[in-house]
Write a structure and sequence with these properties.
Structural class: alpha/beta
Largest sheet: 7 strands, mixed
Strand content: 15-25%
CATH architecture of the largest domain: 3-Layer(aba) Sandwich
Oligomer: single chain
CATH class of the largest domain: Alpha Beta
Order of helices and strands: HHHHHHEHEHEHHEEHEEHEEE
Distance between the termini: 60 Å
CATH topology of the largest domain: Rossmann fold
Number of strands: 10
CATH superfamily of the largest domain: Vaccinia Virus protein VP39
Helix content: 40-55%
C-alpha cells in the first residue's frame, strides 16, 4: 500500500487528537506545530502507525507515552516529525561572517578552536564549518594542522547516523564551489563522501535544545544556530539563545537566523552590525 493510499484510509486527525499531539511535541521537544502543519503531522503519524498496526491516533499516543517501549517508540517518531532539510554552505552571508571571524580569531588566540553546530541535522552544516576553518587556516600560510574541532548536535538519531556516514548525493553538493568539492570530497560514482581530513575534525552527538543546561559544551569560539529557533515559542527562543550565549568563550561569536529572535539582548553580548546576518559577539 502506498503512503498516499494509507493516509486516505486513516480517519481525519480530529481537533482533539491534533491538540494532544501538539502538547506532547511542545512538552518534549519545545516544538510548536501550527494548524497549517496538521497535514504534515497526520502523514508522519500515519506512516509510523501503519508500520506498527495502529489505526487510531489516540491509541498510538497512549502507546508512545507508556513505559520503556513508549520511550523507544518516541525516539523513533522524532525522526518523522522533525524537519531535516539542510545543505552545504546554506547561508552564504552567515558563512562569510564566520570566515572573517575565524580568520581573525585564529591569529588572536593560539588555543584550539571550538565550534558548535546546533541542530546539525544530517551534518552538512557541521562539515561546512570544518571545511571553512580548514580553508582559513591555509590562508596567509597559517598552519592547516592546527587543532580545532566542530561538534554537531541534533535530537534525531537517524539524522545523526547519516551525518556520521558523511555520504551525500551529487544534488547536495551541486551548489558548492567546485574547488571545495574536489578538495574535501571523494567520489565513488554514486555520490560524494566527506574526506577523513574533514570528518576527523567533526563529532556528532544527540542533544535536545530543551536540555542545553545539561550539555558540557563551553568556552566555544563559534556557535552556529540557524533555522532551529523558528519552531519554538518566542519566550523559549530567548531562553535557548541565552543558554547558548553562556557557552561562548570571551570574544566568541553566536550566529542565529534572521528574524528568529527579536527584543533580546544580554549585557555581555554586542550585536554584529549588518542586515543580512543576525549575530552577536561576547565581550572579552
Amino acid at each position: 500500500m502506498t503512503d498516499h493510499a494509507l493516509i486516505k484510509r486513516l480517519p481525519e486527525l480530529s481537533d482533539r487528537d491534533f491538540s494532544i499531539w501538539q502538547e506532547l511535541l511542545e512538552e518534549r521537544l519545545g516544538l510548536q506545530l501550527p494548524e497549517q502543519r496538521r497535514s504534515f503531522l497526520k502523514t508522519s503519524l500515519a506512516i509510523r502507525m501503519r508500520e506498527l498496526g495502529y489505526d487510531n491516533y489516540l491509541d498510538y499516543y497512549r502507546y508512545v507515552r507508556k513505559g520503556d517501549a513508549g520511550l523507544i517508540e518516541w525516539n523513533m517518531l522524532i525522526d518523522r516529525v522533525t524537519v531535516q532539510e539542510t545543505r552545504f554552505y546554506r547561508d552564504p552571508a552567515a558563512f562569510t561572517l564566520a570566515r572573517d571571524f575565524l580568520h581573525k580569531r585564529a591569529r588572536e588566540n593560539q588555543r584550539p578552536l571550538a565550534l558548535w553546530s546546533v541542530g546539525c541535522s544530517t551534518g552538512e552544516e557541521a562539515y561546512s564549518l570544518a571545511m571553512l576553518t580548514l580553508e582559513e587556516l591555509r590562508r596567509d600560510g597559517a598552519n592547516p594542522q592546527r587543532r580545532f574541532g566542530v561538534t554537531g548536535t541534533d535530537v534525531s538519531l537517524q539524522a545523526l547516523e547519516a551525518a556520521r556516514r558523511g555520504s551525500y548525493s551529487s544534488r547536495r553538493v551541486e551548489n558548492m564551489d567546485k574547488r571545495l568539492v574536489e578538495r574535501y570530497f571523494d567520489t565513488d560514482g554514486l555520490g560524494y563522501a566527506v574526506k577523513f581530513e574533514v570528518r576527523d575534525r567533526v563529532c556528532f552527538t544527540r542533544l535536545n535544545v530543551l536540555e542545553l543546561s545539561r550539555s558540557p559544551m563551553k568556552d566555544l569560539d563559534l556557535i552556529y544556530c540557524q533555522n532551529v529557533l523558528i519552531y519554538f515559542r518566542k519566550w523559549r527562543r530567548k531562553e535557548i539563545v541565552s543558554e547558548l550565549a553562556r557557552r561562548l568563550a570571551p570574544g566568541g561569536l553566536l550566529i542565529l537566523g534572521l528574524g528568529e529572535v527579536v527584543d533580546w539582548k544580554l549585557p555581555e553580548l554586542t550585536r554584529v552590525p549588518g542586515e543580512r546576518v543576525l549575530a552577536y559577539l561576547k565581550r572579552k
